[in-house]
Amino acid sequence: MEKILIVDDDRATSTLLRTLFEIEGFVGVVCPKPEDVLNTLRRERPDVVLMDVHLAEVDSIHILRAIRVDAELQAVPVVMTSGLDVREKCEANGASAFMQKPFKPSELVALVKRQLAPASL
Prior knowledge:
Blueprint (H helix, E strand, L loop, with lengths): L2 E5 L3 H13 L3 E5 L5 H8 L3 E5 L1 E2 L2 E2 L1 H9 L8 E5 L4 H6 L4 E4 L4 H16 L1
Parallel strand pairs: 1-2, 1-3, 3-6, 6-7
Antiparallel strand pairs: 4-5
C-alpha cells in the first residue's frame, strides 16, 4: 500500500486529506510541524509528499529545497499546494507537481496517483 506524507499545519485540513487518501487505499501520515518534515520523511519512507506552501507562517519552499538536495530523499515526489498561484516558484524549486486550493478531492487524488505512475512502470 502506498504511503502519502501530508505536511499541513491545519489540523482539519490534514485530517480530511488523510481520510480522503485512506478511502482511496493509501496510508496517510500527517506531519504538522515544518521542523519535523525531514525526520518524518526518513522514518516513514512515503511514496509521495503532499505539502502546503504556508506552514505555521513559514514558507515551506526551504523544506522542498532541502528534500531535493538530500541524496536519501531527493527522488520522493513532492506535490505542493497553496491558496495562491505559486506554481512557478514551487516547480522552480523542485516540486514534482502543484495544485492550487481550493481543489476537488478527485483532482488531488488523480494528481497524486500520476506521481506514483513512473514508480509502477
